[in-house]
Amino acid sequence: MSKDANPAQKRIDRFFSGPGARADDWRDLVEAAKTWARVGNRAAYDAALADLSITEEFHGYPGLPLMAALREAAATGDGSAAFALATRIAQALATRSFRQYAGDWSAKDDGNGDAPELVPPSFGAHTARRPYFETLIVTGVSPGQWPALAAEWRKLRRPVDAFIYEPVIVGSLEDAFCATMLNPNIGAVIINEGFGLRSRHDAPVLRSIMGAAGLNDETDASALRLAHIIKRVRPELDLYMISNRDVEELAGNPEADVVRRIFYSVEELLELHLSILEGIQDRYDTPFFDNLKKYAQRPIGTFHALPIARGKSIFKSDWIRDMGEFYGPNLFLAESSATTGGLDSMLEPTGNIKKAQEKAARALGADRVFFVTNGTSTSNKMAVQALLAPGDIAIVDRNCHKSHHYGMVLAGAQPLYVEAFPMTEYSMYGAVPLKTIKQALLGAKADGRLDRVKMLDLTNCTFDGHIYNTRRVMEECLAIKPDLIFLWDEAWFGFARFSPFLRRRTGLGAANEIEAWMRDPKSVAVYEKQQAELGKNPSNEVLLKTRLIPDPRQIRLRVYQTNSTHKSMSAIRQGSMLSVKDVEFHTVEQQFKEAVFTHASTSPNQQLIASLDISRRQMELEGYGLVANAIEIAFAIRQAVNSNPLISKYFRILGADAMVPAQYRQSGFTDFLAPGVNWANTLKSLDDDEFCLDPTRMTLVCGMAGYDGTQFKGILANEYNIQVNKTSRNSVLVQSNINNTRSDVAHLVRVLAEIAGEIDRGLAQGGANARKTFEARVTSLMKDVPDLPNFSHFHPSFRGDAGTKTNEGDIRSGFYAAYDVAGCEHIRLNDPEIDQRLKAGPELVSANFVIPYPPGFPIMVPGQVITQETIDFMRKLDVKEIHGYDAKEGLKLVRTEALAKLGRPKPAAQTKLKAAS
């Protein structure tokens, strides 16, 4: 997305332009100052400084004094001084040294930072490193008084304070909103009464959004309304309100629950200062990690079964001491199998793990969170086992992670598979259309089996970046079945909680919005109006076409979300969180404990637990900025690849228009980088479209370069030290994350340019035969692609308890049928017998899961009837890794005779036992 819709005019509503864009602006100023100092042309410097000054108002550093010093240099005609100061500020921003070094706040470069009127008091006076943040102050006082107001706040700093902050002062609701969006360093907000509505600067896109939110008149600029707006976009921030009115009445207003504390006038400025620090400390505290550090420093004798604890067996050894030298002593000092002495039990947490999980629940917007130390595969199986019983039906995305399929086997639940829309050209699937999900629910209802449909189990976002309209999915499903449980596998999407744009597309984000809607008295009227329009007995055809509204009085909101914390936050590998927002959780709490006991290790890794605790701290305190940077990095990669004349000949990153069919982009949104795209129309897409694309997940097509995905992934890793995610037949998945930098972008682009150049030279020097061979390879990868196989159906032997209008089956019986060795057979993939049986029978029935990588989901499940399209797909596969399939042995099938036995009626005793269970 371009930085400005109108380059001639600086805009303050560039919410997709993050730290990188700000750094570019400062680089431009430095270059302009350099030109002025050397050549004498000041016009470019004046223009760059005027532009920069607008958005810099929303940042604590460099602040009003240093920006004034830059303008003063221009006024006195001192180009050298302007160049020197601009350079020092840009370097301080790039290195973030201003957070600790007082000299960076000085307009003079005299080696000792001696400029007391500009240097914030107490910077550099504290020996230990203190985390730095900025506090937004929204006030009605005139801008001429802001420097004095900032000075008063700086006087409150004390050497004993654990943190240090700089005030950022604005005078309107729009500017407060922009500062909240543009400044990731803001950690707290103070809202005084008496501020205005409009910004002093141009922001037409922002004002269109504010108008849509009903903010049109100066009287709309209330402190409480601003508090709700900020809490919606940055829920992690602590909000404080200063009122000159009846604060007791305001404090008792339920609408004020978004505010951490309310103060009367400015009578207790020090108390407000201390409250701000306490709020930051609350987010900074990591109960388990803090106790683990204390534990590691105690002299402890270990007489338990963990010899590596304390590291003596490591550091005293001549043979494995290098392990200790590599990891350092703290890793071993912090190892223990004890759950006492300041530690806690993962299985029955009552102390610091419990507190850490409670903080994680607050950060993620959940009622409760479970830490999981063996990956989201386990989180998914725990949720499925706890929430489903034998005979329950779950609507499941057939392309979901294998852990969900295995969870159904463990629970004895019957999966009713639904299909995602295919992307055959790229050998991948998208996501499951809402119409398909509604058809499954309505089919179960027509069969009289809706009561047995307990769960909808979907992946959000998908491996390739497809994001559901989670609120719409849940609302329409709840309109059909008000107590349906939702399990959102958001393994790759945990970071989205900390983006105001993506949060609404998460399971918990949508659940919180639905919960707020249910409390709105208008919701019942909206529901009843639609019911009157639909009539008493609307047809399924009408229901499928209608955007259904649930009855807010009947909804039982039950939402579960799993996140691979290690995939998008700073957690060690296998660190996962399972979040719960379920009004009926008390009815399944014991089942959840049993699921934890079943799957969780009794010897969890202490470092994993600590990293989950730490990752929560980081995301609450700086996650907003980190995620904004990851999105900006993704935009930079997309732009660099697709706009480079050489690279784009052989590689391209697919836009939203290529990844999401037009029928699911109701807003008309095409791509993040399309001309004219800005924050407003992107937000409309996020609100309205059935599917959106996660900007951080980039499908890089490599088939045009003659490489299949697996081959190209190997080249990047082995020859250029670049690691990427999954592959398809003709693409690789590139993902930006909170760890990436602009240097990473430059490295990737440089490598792609080098590879593209080599292809260009090879084709130019190789003659007609080389080009013909290359074109044939590209055609094979890009055109001659196998059709993707859909799930066929379960064999009747595994559908004895199924309905007539739905396609669920007993996957557990199918799974255990494979344990009967005599009842199974193997047939090689190219054996003519397969073709004969596909035409004349008997049917081929899979005895196990078959999961090729890519695409990474089961193309066969136990008990499934294998069809011609599945065989064709497997025969065209050229991947090396296929779980559940041995090429030497062939397909593992359930014999026809065994199927006949499985299909016979069960003895009465077994039938009664099943009914009782």
UniProtKB/TrEMBL annotation:
<dbReference type="InterPro" id="IPR000310">
    <property type="entry name" value="Orn/Lys/Arg_deCO2ase_major_dom"/>
</dbReference>
<dbReference type="InterPro" id="IPR015421">
    <property type="entry name" value="PyrdxlP-dep_Trfase_major"/>
</dbReference>
<keyword id="KW-0032">Aminotransferase</keyword>
<protein>
    <submittedName>
        <fullName>Arginine decarboxylase</fullName>
    </submittedName>
</protein>
<keyword id="KW-0808">Transferase</keyword>
<dbReference type="InterPro" id="IPR050881">
    <property type="entry name" value="LL-DAP_aminotransferase"/>
</dbReference>
<feature type="domain" description="Orn/Lys/Arg decarboxylases family 1 pyridoxal-P attachment site">
    <location>
        <begin position="286"/>
        <end position="515"/>
    </location>
</feature>
<dbReference type="InterPro" id="IPR015424">
    <property type="entry name" value="PyrdxlP-dep_Trfase"/>
</dbReference>
<feature type="domain" description="Orn/Lys/Arg decarboxylases family 1 pyridoxal-P attachment site">
    <location>
        <begin position="558"/>
        <end position="735"/>
    </location>
</feature>
<dbReference type="Pfam" id="PF01276">
    <property type="entry name" value="OKR_DC_1"/>
</dbReference>
<dbReference type="GO" id="GO:0008483">
    <property type="term" value="F:transaminase activity"/>
</dbReference>
<dbReference type="InterPro" id="IPR036633">
    <property type="entry name" value="Prn/Lys/Arg_de-COase_C_sf"/>
</dbReference>
